[in-house]
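for ur thesis appendix - asparagine synthase (glutamine-hydrolyzing). copy paste whatever u need, i formatted it the way the template wanted (i think)
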Amino acid sequence: MCGLSGEIRFDGRRPDVAAVERMTDRMAARGPDGRGIWSQGRVALGHRRLKIIDLSERGAQPMVDNEARLTCVFNGCVYNYRELREELQTCGHRFFSTSDTEVVLKAYQQWGTDCVDHFMGMFAFALVENDTGRVVLARDRLGIKPLYLAHGPGRLRFASTLPALLAGGGVDTSLDPVALHQYLSWHATVAAPRTVLNGVRKLPPATVRVIEPDGSCRDRCYWQPSYSRRAEYAGMDAEDWRDAVLDSLRTAVRRRMIADVPVGVLLSGGLDSSLIVSLLAEEGQRNLATFSVGFESEGGEEGDEFAYSDLMARRHGTDHHRLLVPSDRLPTALDGAVAAMSEPMISHDVVAFHLLSEQVSKELSVVQSGQGADEVFAGYRWYPEMAAAEREREPETYAEVYFDRPHSDVARVLQPHLLTGHDESGRFVREHMASPGAETALDAALRLDTHVMLVDDPVKRVDNMTMDWGLEARTPFLDHELVELAAACPPELKLAQDGKGVLKDVGRKVLPREIVDRPKGYFPVPAIRHMAGPVLERVRSALAAPEARARGVFREEYLAELLAAPDDHRTKRGANALWHVALLEIWLQTHGID
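the 3d part is after this line
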């Protein structure tokens, strides 16, 4: 796990190595164990390294393969790198390290851009053909590892984080009205390739982009599972599906133990993280380190679920660590979390993950986490409504159950110069749901949530918050083979038992009933949800700042209405509306965006 950066020139000039160095240094937290810069011809690459696999200097990056005439910077982990290494050796390839980065280089030499089809894992990489000057960018199937892009005069820059691109300079930081519409509609999610800044884009998940020396490029989307009932699973009953999911999850958890350092677990005490702990115990893991976080109660709302995480820790004798955060620590903690955000994120647990990651990083550098299970196995409360939607009303139903606010309300929030004039978020959903490959309304919703909303909200959140402390988070529920299996699973099995039915059946085989049958929990941060004093003070300060007034993103009358009753205004999904708008302004100020 690392941070990568680079610049490609298309105008005959040499790359700006100083800019690449600035981008690289901005990502020092992602890779505290090493730094490297490489430049040849029209390309320069930078890398910050977190040592997880091959702890020797032979695994350092940028990695140059002089025999293959290739250079690579890589972020992530290819979990099947050992098997691929053996396969490539039988094809005649010789290795000088034991790193998965070198496997990527040799796999490209053997299979070209089809190499990504062989990888099981999470990754983003940039690979240069030293002789031709061709550059290949790629991102994993579920977009677990980020890759941001910024075009400039005669050049393209890329990096693992958006703030790194800003550090390079020359980025158009004007606001993208379409992205703002999505931000306000989808709980701060902005779908690839957009970001809230006009000058920064994201390589979409499951995409390989080949960039020629003249600047022309071509993309290939190399993976998209079918959300339909496949013939190979015909005749399977509920018990068969339970066993198939359990076997696939076991494999996913086992794969994510691959490391040359210890691997722990972020344990919330919910079904998903508890399953990971139990399956690791089955694998014979001893002295497993587990970590939980909770917050001080506010507004009558409890802020921790320690009773459940403690139960799992006692059951398996884990080395358990609890972190309880008082409300008066939140403003400082919030500023640290916002500084770590590549894009603005309003979900309360962003602060929790940042604080928890700080503690975990003192103990180890790799953890497994339960993100993704709710999207993959239909765990959210709105899925039954989607399942009941009439086919011709699928997009409208999705907007009714998922959107924070309708298109008409966006005009109440934003100043006129930032309005799109059209329901851009609704258009995106309509186009996505109309594409072939989803058999039912629920299948279409799960496909949208798994491959768009999940990628640019919870997945991005976990990457940003953990990597800001040099901590690698691995997500077994986003194993692509498990996702393929879940996509084919009959909707009624996923919807059963108030959601995630097939996964709860798995849990009944390996977990205490108190964990499986507990009410669904969310990661509560009451001080943010209820605008407790210290948080409200930070919000007022940001919205009253000269930068905010000069920027003029939000209508003054709307802000006055929210500030007059900070805890009274909620979006359709129950988020604090003041927090939704204030977080964007706090993020822009934190990252020095005019």
